Amino acid sequence: MNKKRAIFLLIFAGIAIYSLSLFNGFVWDDEEQVVNNTLVHTIANLPSFFTGSTFNTGGTGTLMGIYYKPLMSFFFALIYTFFGPQAFFFHLFQVGIHILNSVLVFWLFRSFLVYLERSKNSKLKTSAPADPPSSRWNDWLAFSLALLFLVHPIQVEAVVYVSALQDVLFFCFGMLSLRAIAKNQNNLRLFLLPAILFLLSLFSKETAAVLILLTLVFVLLFKKGKLLFSALAAGGAVLIYAFLRFVVAKVFFFHQDFSPIMQAPLPQRLLSIPKIIFVYLKTFFFPDRLAITQHWVVVNPNFPDFFGPLAFDFLFFAVLVVCGIWLYQHSLKAFKTYLFFFLWFVFGLVLHLQLFPLDLTLAERWFYLPLVGLLGMLGIVVYSLKCKKVLVLLLLACALPLATRAISRTTDWKNGLTLFSRDIAISHDVFDLENNYGVELFRAGQYDEAKAHFEKSTAVAPNWWTNWNNLGASLEREGNLISAAQDYQKAIANGDYYLAYENYAGILAKQEKYEEAKEFLENKALPKFPLNYNLQQMYLYVKFKLQPPSDQK
């Protein structure tokens, strides 16, 4: 094993495991962020990506939403410009970035193992070159850890879900910035490269702030002479990002309380933290029950939901602390490296522990960053043990069943009907999963089953808008126009959903309420969605019905 062979094997393994996903379609938010998002259909709209959020559906003319990810929109537009709405090329790009990230993870682990090997040689006063290569088994160790990062089934969501492109993007640019700082010879004139990479990472996802913080921690622990250099790069990137996000795009941090965790007060969210950590760790060790969306809140501190997970979390972190103490007693440099990965793991987790409410209780793609910290700690412990060779072989052996599970999971993402039908058996009473499954059933002509899932979604999340619109569409199809109109109005009141505006205007026209339809279109619908073609056509139709043109000779 050497560096080149390791990189080749990682590329080969990535292609082998994720090749089936290249033929998957667009799923869930992919339709709204790519297929129906007209602004990302051409790269000519590049300036608009930095002046709004990520959604442009319904004809608003601007990118709307609560996130600021202009780089994701840029890559969507770049791919769409050359290949159109072909999901294959979106998946190909995302899989390629994930494989590159695995190579960067290999570089990270190998660099630290070389550092520790050099320190050991220096301590033993053995003759060694100034920059000795790591031993064969150290290369195997770095490779095995990077391979686990590549193939772990918890990664599938971040790799095959097109709307999760931001997760692999921010990590890629963040790792490149860390590498640029580690390799730079403290030349202040060259701070521009890591600053640009920091900025690109932030433009991909807000979580990049954690990687920037970890880079500064890395400098403090291992490269103190580069502190000024790194602070300038990080500070400059953050200031530019903040100016463009808050001043230019005016995209602030706020949330809409349509999911259970968003509605939960802080004490309930704090009660949920032990179970959130437990589910992430359980999924890491036993990735059997994977699901795209999970909405739950721990309301009462019972044993299954609070005390049991809390005991497991306490035991797990106690083991981490004991390992840290043992490393501190044996090697200060190994301990510093372990501490760095421990902080990597903790910082990556904290951002997703609902101290600030997010739109999901947890998501597998949110473990993309913490996973590196967990694997890094594991690698340092294995390196420091005498049975390193046996443990490395064991890690390599673990990669095979994980890869098999990952391949199986990629097939779940073939299309929306396949994914939602399988995940709904795991995630029960989840409002968006019920709604999404209902949409796929409706498209498949299973109208009664679809309606049942829409009704369940509205019962679980009455403050959402998409489910009310879809329930209204089911009722309209049955001919129940009055109830359908009421549901469309609920969707409009909850979230200004453009399809609800279209459907409500259409149902007014069906009821021949042309004056009411005209007033609704003029005063409410078209001012919000001035570029919406369907609303424009409906407005012309209503005006024609109210004032038909005179007969012409």
Distance between the termini: 87 Å
Number of domains: 2
Major pleated sheet:
none
Radius of gyration: 26 Å
Count of helical segments?
A: 24
Helix amount: 55-70%
Give me some keywords for this one.
globular; mainly alpha; 24 helices; 553 residues
Short overview:
With 553 residues, the protein is an all-alpha fold. The chain has two domains: 3-411, no CATH class; 420-546, Serine Threonine Protein Phosphatase 5, Tetratricopeptide repeat. The protein contains 24 helices and no strands.
Describe this structure in words.
The protein is mostly helical. Helices cover 69% and strands 0% of the residues. α9 (208-222) packs antiparallel against α14. The longest helix has 38 residues, at 87-124. Mean pLDDT is 90; it is low at 127-134. InterPro entries: O-mannosyl-transferase_TMTC (IPR052346), TPR-like_helical_dom_sf (IPR011990), TPR_rpt (IPR019734). The chain crosses the membrane at residues 7-28, 137-154, 190-221, 227-248, 306-328, 335-354, 366-383, 390-408. Keywords: Membrane, Repeat, TPR repeat, Transmembrane, Transmembrane helix.
